[in-house]
């Protein structure tokens, strides 16, 4: 989710460096085993994410809290390890206490990423990308609060698909024969990255819905 969120946070990225170049630089620096691990995890999340949605929510909030704690520790001059672990534990604990709300907020974030990526694919200005994120966040967060299954399926689909995409890109970056051409294609066609996210996300949603209908013993708890 954090990597997918780069679609939204591109304004804060390195000035003059395109989002595609930032992502490509990151994924091409990973080892093959890292890419395989991300790919495997992404496939599991994309197919069975609804089943482990509450655990994923706690982990995600713990990670978000850890990053926020690390940033605040450096900003306020605090012990960065203590602030990272402390805030991560606090947000993770809050998510355990209010899991349904946590999953719904993550679903809002997933909807925001999809909305922002749509605006990004159309080469709109940064203000419109932020507007797309806010519209997607509010729409899906409100819907998720009403229908929990929507929240669990949506955010796990986006999370799993994001891991699949970056895992595949990382593996492809190790192939010298296609690495340069793929990097150029991503740079020249801004809609490629969003399409790479949308297609597996749509497939994941369909697969999870089919499994929910065919396996009633695994219905998401409300």
Task: Write up what this structure looks like.
This protein has a domain at 18-51 and 99-213. The two termini are 23 Å apart. The radius of gyration is 18 Å and the shape is globular. The chain has helices at residues 19-27, 32-48, 53-76, 80-97, 99-121, 126-146, 148-173, 176-188, 192-214. It has nine helices and no strands. It is 78% helix and 0% strand. By secondary structure, the chain is an all-alpha fold. Helix 3 (53-76) packs across helix 5 (99-121), helix 5 crosses helix 7 and helix 5 (99-121) packs antiparallel against helix 9.
Write the layout of secondary structure elements.
Layout: H1 19-27, H2 32-48, H3 53-76, H4 80-97, H5 99-121, H6 126-146, H7 148-173, H8 176-188, H9 192-214
């Amino acid at each position: 989710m954090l990597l997918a969120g780069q679609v939204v946070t591109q304004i804060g990225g390195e000035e003059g460096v395109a989002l595609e170049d930032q992502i490509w630089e990151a994924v091409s620096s990973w080892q093959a085993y890292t890419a395989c691990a991300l790919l495997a995890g992404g496939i599991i999340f994309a197919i069975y994410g609804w089943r482990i949605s509450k655990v994923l929510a706690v982990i995600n909030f713990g990670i978000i809290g850890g990053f926020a704690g690390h940033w605040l520790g450096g900003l306020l001059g605090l012990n960065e390890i203590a602030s990272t672990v402390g805030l991560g534990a606090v947000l993770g604990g809050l998510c355990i206490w209010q899991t349904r709300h946590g999953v719904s907020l993550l679903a809002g974030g997933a909807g925001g990423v999809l909305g922002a990526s749509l605006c990004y694919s159309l080469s709109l200005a940064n203000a419109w990308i932020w507007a797309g994120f806010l519209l997607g966040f509010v729409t899906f967060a409100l819907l998720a609060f009403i229908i929990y299954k929507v929240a669990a399926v949506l955010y796990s689909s986006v999370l799993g698909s994001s891991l699949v995409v970056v895992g595949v890109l990382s593996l492809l970056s190790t192939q010298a024969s296609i690495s340069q051409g793929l990097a150029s294609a991503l740079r020249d066609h801004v809609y490629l990255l969003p399409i790479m996210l949308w297609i597996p996300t749509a497939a994941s949603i369909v697969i999870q819905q089919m499994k929910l209908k065919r396996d009633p013993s695994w219905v998401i708890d409300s």
